[in-house]
Amino acid sequence: MFTLLLDLDDTLLDTNIQAFAPAYFAALSEALAQDVPQHLLVPALLEGTKAMTQNEDPALTLREVFDAYFFPKIGRERAALQTKIDRFYEEVFPTLERVVKRRPEAVDFVEWALQAGYQVAIATNPYFPLQAIHHRLRWAGLPPEEYSFALISAYETFHFTKENPAYFYEFLAQLGWPEGPVLMVGNDFEMDLAPALRAGLPVFWLRQTPSSEHLDVPQGYFEDLRDYLERTDPQTLQPTFQTPEALLAMLRSTPAALTTLTDSLPSEFWQCRPAPGEWCLVEVLCHLRDVEAEVNLPRLQKVLAEENPFLPGVVTDTWAEERNYASQDGHRALVEFVASRRRLIALLNAATDGWLRPARHAIFGPTTLFELVGFIAEHDRNHVRQIWNLFPKRSSK
Q1: Separation of alpha carbons 260 and 59, rounded Å
Q2: How many H-runs (helices) and E-runs (strands) does the chain carry?
Q3: How many C-alpha atoms does 305 have within 13 Å on its Cβ side?
Q4: What are phi and psi of 94, to 5 degrees?
């Protein structure tokens, strides 16, 4: 399956941020005027947004990051304002359509892509709640009620913003790590494309006029994008994971995506087996937890502490039955996996010059820290796919 990740602002929708941002701030300030002075609201909004862009913690959604900064700054609890916030996004936010413009050619492209069999997803920077993003898609002439978008990123369900390469891997993980080509399409090179390139994703720079910059990046407008897709060998648009930064981003994305994928799942899904002998969700999460704590972390610690150490092979698949994973608490297993993954990431962040350190693996032979981390990332992808296939897919809408 070919997956298209489409930016929203100034790609599918002419947002005119110079007009939209002041109108948005003014409307929200008026809606909350009785509770929050404007001189507190706007700075808190801006700094709360900045806090989201800086988040590296896979256990915190962007909404949680924003709330932790924003509400203390304005001196109110979210619960006290939630009714007014909900009313704002339901009744007032839609009126901001007056400051944006629809791009009919964007609608034509999306319809062509869906008819051609592409998996189309909305990879907008998740600064807003999903309700607001749905409104903006309607402004673009692409109402989510009518278009089968595979996923729409929003601040309730994402843990990283687009400035962070981990955002793109979290996106793909929430799609179940689809196998096949991927293309990120956006208008802002620094915001949309540079982080995607750092993650190893192919990109297309959507521009109405050609640029003399970044000539190695395919670019053009919607008709050029369609032509590019029709004439390019899809196999050349496979993601690659060839740098330490990309691997670290993937390691961050796994616990983040698993938290979203398993959030609010009915209890029966945690114990449901897709077929006799296959693992249920609880068993997969317990497996990830134990492999991280008992294999991955000690193994990388050994490579960083010793010169060319020998790493014995470990058979872990039998642990599911030996340790009776099916009877354990899957929610707790996920929390413990996230804690171990944080420690592993911290270990690698400190190993700035150690990615080529050698080791001898009982099965793989001579190897390096970089290759071992690549094995962990591949292990992550396989089990995210396994979890994705365990339960009915939830709508992005």
Answers
A1: 10
A2: 16, 10
A3: 8
A4: -60, -25
Alpha carbon of 224 to those of 105, 167, 210, 218: distances in Å? 12, 26, 11, 9
Extended strands (E) in the chain: 3-6, 13-14, 101-102, 119-122, 182-186, 203-206, 219-220, 310-311, 358-361, 365-368
Q: From CA 252, how far away is CA 29, in angstroms rounded?
A: 35
CB distance 197 to 282 below 8 Å: no
Best CATH choice for the domain 244-388 from the list 1.20.120.450, 3.40.50.720, 3.80.10.10, 3.40.50.2000:
1.20.120.450
How many Cβ atoms sit within 10 Å of the Cβ of residue 283? 24
- Side-chain half-sphere exposure of 382, counting CA atoms within 13 A: 9
pLDDT of residue 393: 57
- Residue where the block lists tokens 């944080």: 342
Rg (CA), the chain: 22
Interatomic CA distance for residues 77 and 81, integer angstroms: 7
Q: Measuring CA to CA, which residue among 131, 117, 137, 130 is closest to residue 178? A: 117
Cβ atoms of 358 and 366 within 8 Å: the answer is yes
pLDDT tens digits for 225-274?
999 999 999 999 999 988 999 999 999 999 999 999 999 888 888 988 88
Residue 25 has φ and ψ, to the nearest 5°, of: -60, -45
Q: HSE on the CB side for 242, CA within 13 Å?
A: 6
* Residue-level pLDDT at 397: 44
DSSP states of 21-61: HHHHHHHHHHHTTTTS-HHHHHHHHHHHHHHHHT---TTS-
Which DSSP string do the residues of 11-32 spell out, in sequence order?
TTEE--HHHHHHHHHHHHHHHT
Does the domain at 3-12+100-237 match CATH 3.40.50.1000? Answer given as yes
- pLDDT band, very low/low/confident/very high, at 395 (cuts 50, 70, 90): very low
Task: Say what the pTM is.
Answer: 0.95
Given a cut of 90, whether residue 46 has pLDDT beyond it is yes
Confidence at residue 396, expressed as pLDDT on a 0 to 100 scale:
44
Beta bridge partners of 186: 205
